Amino acid sequence: MQDNLRQTFTGLAGILFVALLAYTITHHELWGDEIHSWNIVKASSSLAALFHNMRYEGHPPLWYLLLYPLTRLTHDPRAMQPLQFVIACAAMGLLLFRSPLPLFARLLAPFGYFLLYEYGAFSRNYAIGVLLAFCICIVLARAAPMLPAAQRGADEPALPGRQAGGSTPTERGAGARPRFRVWLYYLLLLLLSNTHLLGLLLAFSFHAWFLLSPRKTSRRKLSLHLLGFVVLLPAVFFILPPGDSQMNAGFWLHHWDLHRLTPSLQAPLRAFLPMPAWWEDHWWNTECLLGWKSLALFGALAGPVLGWMGLTPRGRVLFAINFIVTLLAGLVFPLTSARYTGFLLIGWFAAAWVGTARDGGGRSDADTRGGVGAPARPRRWPALLLLALQIPAAVFAVWQDGHRPFSRADTAPQLVGEVPVGARLVCDYWALNPLAAFTDSAFYCIDLGEKRAFLRWDGDFAARLQRPDRYVDGARRLGPGALYLISTASPPELERAAGPGFQVRLIDFRDGAIEKGSNLYLYEVDTMGSH
């Protein structure tokens, strides 16, 4: 009877998650970072060209490779959203129906800010990382009964037919299955590491936890396990951009100062207590508690503590490894956005999963014992509170994204249609993304002085964008005649960027976007007055 009720509640939670995610994705307008990846893949005529074009991105290739077949079928960037929907639903399906987390955790998790919104609504390379992380948890959970008693935990009895630290005759005769799981585990590590820097850090944490688990093993097996780190090297190669990239490691190290500590110190607060500044028009990527230093400090400490209390000792090791390596990486690559910090929470889910697993099928006695990976009932409330605190931010974000445009990028064709026939149309750097994505054309960037189909973060672009006369010089190169400009900059912002010598007249605009850099403005350029 209890099992039937659990299955009913879990199924209802899954249906509600699918409905909410479908509503959010269908109402979410794609913005710059989402369509930037699409533009790169769309402009690549082959896989070789794709690897060449993405070398400045600082991202591994998995997401781009998933987009590649889509861009061969259509040039509409909204084709990413069904793919994102399937990936996010698959990840949630694993958490709901295959994880050993207790019922309350599985019922609350689908409606948290990160799983429903940041990693659900946005077509980026994060949800695929969550899905692969949960797949690794399943592999490790299935392998848990195969491990010595010392690794399973002292409170965990040996399985029937097994001596402590030994194996059953069935297991000894099924050596192929453990070998398959080992290679599947390494394949999943490779894929996870090739999603994002955060995926690489989580993959490293998984394998470090795997090696630190107490076990008796031969030197040969130890060497094989150490070779697991080799599968992470391709991702490192892709994440470290070439020397002429604007975002190379030298750039980050050159600009390092003590202020870089701030995002890492704020990351636990953003991950475990996300609370957007709801009174702001551009609330996305804000954290209201940062306005109150004492509350922010309390939240930054309380979140990890709650997470720690809701885990078994075995799960705490994985949680601590991922927590530490993520914050350390944040000293070089700042964790300035909520989506970056959310992988601290994903690491917590993984730690709860592998720390709770007992029977290889994903089920555990945590449902009856009352805690995420913990045999003691008092440990239920920290995990309950941790997951409940994610829900208000998710409700607010989903409601806002459903009632306000997140981006105005999809209105680019409307502004293009207002340009008189025969007039020349140009854009500035940041407007290229929406124009190239939604009109399927390359455009002349007036501040770069060249025509492009996608943005490229090389060092040359940074030098050009620093020139104070770049707009005037670009207009002069085009010569006299009717000239129109589409920009993401409002009139005051454009005046600051281009200088008073660049004369324009506002023709039309599309504003009101939640993301502050996603409004569009159409200007007529005075080519005679710009000097």
From TrEMBL:
The chain crosses the membrane at residues 6-25, 79-97, 126-144, 183-210, 222-240, 289-310, 317-336. The keyword Oxidoreductase does not apply. It comes from the Bacteria. Keywords: Membrane, Transmembrane, Transmembrane helix. Residues 155-174 are annotated as: Disordered. This is Dolichyl-phosphate-mannose-protein mannosyltransferase.
